[in-house]
Structure formats: structure tokens, C-alpha cells
Amino acid sequence: MVPLFVVVPLAMAFLIVMVGRRSEFISDFLSNIGSGFSFILSCAVLFILPHFSSRIIVYKIGGWLPPVGINLVVDGLSSFMLVTINLIAFMLNIFCISYMRKYTAKWKFYALFLLMLAGMNGIVVSGDIFNMFVFLEIASVASFALVAYGVEAEELEAAFKYIIMSALASSFILLGIAFLYSYTSTLNLADLAGVLQAKAPSNVVVFVSVLFILGFGLKAAIVPFHAWLPDAHPSAPAPVSSFLSGVLIKALGIYALIRIFYNVLGVNKALLGIFTSLGVLSIMVGVLLAIGQMDLKRLLAYHSISQVGYIILGLGLGTPLGILGGLFHLFNHSIFKSLLFLNSGAIEYSIGTRNLEEMGGLRRKMPVTSSTSLVASMAISGVPPFNGFWSKLIIIIACIQAHRIGLAFWAIVGSILTLSSFMKVQKYAFFGSLKKAYDSLKEVPWSMQFSMVILAVICIVGGILILPYLSSLFLWPAKEVLVHGVGYKCLVFSVLR
Predict the structure, then answer these.
(1) Most exposed of 12, 144, 198, 210 (fewest Cβ within 10 Å)?
(2) Do residues 230 and 180 make contact, with C-beta atoms less than 8 angstroms apart?
(3) What is Dmax (Cα atoms) for the chain?
(4) Exposure b/e, 363-394, CB count within 10 A at least 16 = b
């Protein structure tokens, strides 16, 4: 099953290029089949995984044993990420059925979208650091083209900046891999962890750690490595913005960062201190920059930076509760931020603007968009009982439990400022008097409404994931992988034996 996470999206992308141009229906059908199958497969792996030894699946490509051969690995953290990525991809594909009609060559969009999905799935299941880099580049190249998909001046400028910053990040990562390989003579993640554990502490590892923080920090848009994101996200089509903010920066940045540091290089007090500092800095800088924005998508882009800060803060605490909160917020942010970008896309689709000052009273004509936007706004602001409240609460409690009261304080302040920012969005966009130009306005097509409603429902009921049974199936195994740290190597090689 494991290779299918890469093979199916790639195969569907190939088929769309070959036959999708002949009919819009064919390209819609193939793309939704590919993303839908990947989501069902990720759910199947989630339920099947507990039946495997040590809750881990290792697939040996060509039957060659690692570290000589390349292997794909699915553990609790991988299955958690696969469900998150493929759920959002499936919802966005349904949204695109109607939304992407405003662009030409819809089949090209779907091919690039599935290529990006294959790259992200490949990063998550790769058990080899170089192949992780290869998949990272596949997803990145597809995302460059998608950001520039509208081929307007704004899109092309944003894509160019994104390419430059991403190329710089990739250079740091590749250089770090080269140094690591010269020092250990292996690229397999589990074998790397074992070799590094057997060696004495070295400045090479410290230098590689710096390179990885720079590279993956740029990919994740953590402050101060965030300069590319506020331009790239607003410029892209709404489904691409949702995918970039919802899962791409997490798969290319956060997942790769925590997988390598927690399970391969190992973490220490100094490194965790860097993570928590970057987390708090991202929370405050992102939300303060967002408050003054009147471009809806740019406002959402800055909030992506802020919410990523909460994830890094939780993971940087290094405690089981902090890691659990960080991972839970990663999932929740994928849901409510994807929904918010879809809401912005629905508004732009209907009235042709992202400027909040040109909106007003839209709830009368767009009740579904208005209601789902309100739900997502409350979720990202941490208002109970929405899903964002529970993950933020866990992170704040983890900060207090770790005697880091200052961190808890900044997390609360960031959440209050986020609420004020989204109260402004609701006021300008949906409340007030309706402009005469919008008297004939109608709600967006059914496929766009469907995706928004499903994501809104998850925002409302997502808090149940912390209940014992669901948590033991979804969140707890992902947390345990990081808590075990470099013990990851023992899990992989015990399965191989």
C-alpha cells in the first residue's frame, strides 16, 4: 500500500496530461479520483497501522534492505500527516470543480496539483533523507508553477520571489545533507540516527543543524524566514493558497524539521530553546502584521505565520503534552486555514475583489460562505468549543506545566490579537449594509459550498479528537514517535529483523 501514496497521484497527473485536455469532465474526474483514493488509503493505513509490529510499516523498494536499499516508512507521525495532507487535497479538488473554470487550461492545474500532492506524500513516507529532499523539490517546483498560474504581473512577481527564497532554502538543505553524508556515509534516516548516536559530539552536527534550521525554517515560513509567504499566498488561486498554507509549509517545513531533529539528530535544551523562541516570535510578528491588512488573502497569509508559531512553540517545549498540542494544532490549522482561504476564494469568485473595504453585507447574499467563515474565524482565534481552542489550550497548559509562564502569556496575547483581527474581517466583509453593486449577487456553486461546509463541520467537532479512543488512533501514535526520539532507529530495524 505504501508506494501508492506516490504512484496514484503521479499516475493520475500523467493521465490528465494525456487525456484530460479533451474534456473538463475527464480532468475533474481523474483529479478527484486520485485525491479521493489517496485520502481513503491514508485512512485505511491509520486503522491498519496498530496491527503491525511496533506500529510501523517498512517497505523495501526492490527488496533491498536498508541502509543499502531505499525504503519507505509509515509510522504514527507519517500516518497522521498523510491523513491531514490527503483530506485537505480531496476537499480542495472538489472546490476546484467550479472555481477553476475562471482559468484556462484547467487540466494543467490538476496535473500540477497532483504532482505537488505526490511530492508531499513522498516526503512523509520517505525513510531516506536524500529522497526526502527529492520529493521536497518535486512539490516545490509544482508549487512555483501554481503560484504563477494566473500569469498576471502580481502572480509572476510573487512566484519569482518564492522561487528565489525556496532555492536558497533547498541549497541549505542539500548542503546539510552533503555534510551529513560525508560524516556518516549513510543517507537512511534510521541508520543515520544509529551512526550519529555511536559517534562523539561533533561540530559537524552543529553546523548541519544550523543549515537545516535555515532551510526548513524558510520552507515553513517561520519568522525571520517568512519574507516570501505574504506575497506567494495571496497571489495564487484560492485552492493553491489553501494547499500552501494548510499543508505545504507543514510537509516541506515543519514535518521534515521535526522528523530530522527529533528522530535523527536528536534534540537538546539549547535547540528546544531556539524552537520556542522562534515560535513566540512568529506568533507575535505574524499577528501584528496581519491586524493592519485590508487585503483579505494577505491578512490570512500573515496569520499562517502566526499559527505556525503555535505549532513550533508546542513542539519546541519538548514535553509529551507540548508535542501533542503542537501536532493537534498542526491538524487544526490545516482545517481552519484551508477553509478561510476557500472563503476568500468564494468572495473573490463572486465579487472580484480581495479588498475588505470594498465588501460589506455579504452574509445576506452568501449565507453559506458567511457562516463557514465565521466558524473558521472563531476556530483560528481559539474560541470554544471550536477545534482551535482545544489545541491552543493544550499548548498553553503545556507551557505552564513546563514552568514557562512567559511563553503561555504570549500564546494568550497572540490569540486575543487574532480574535480582534478576525472580528475586523467579519465586520468589513459580512456585516454592515450591502452595496448596491451586489444586489444581484448569488452564493457560489454547490461544489465550492460542499468543501466549505465539510471543513466547517470538522472545525466544530474537531475537539473530539482529544477523546481517548480517537486520540489513541490519530494523535497519540504521532506524539509517541517524537517522544521516542532517536529510538526511531530501533523501531525501523526491529521490523526489518
Answers:
(1) 198
(2) no
(3) 72
(4) bebbebbbbbbbbbbbbbbbbeebbbbbbbbb
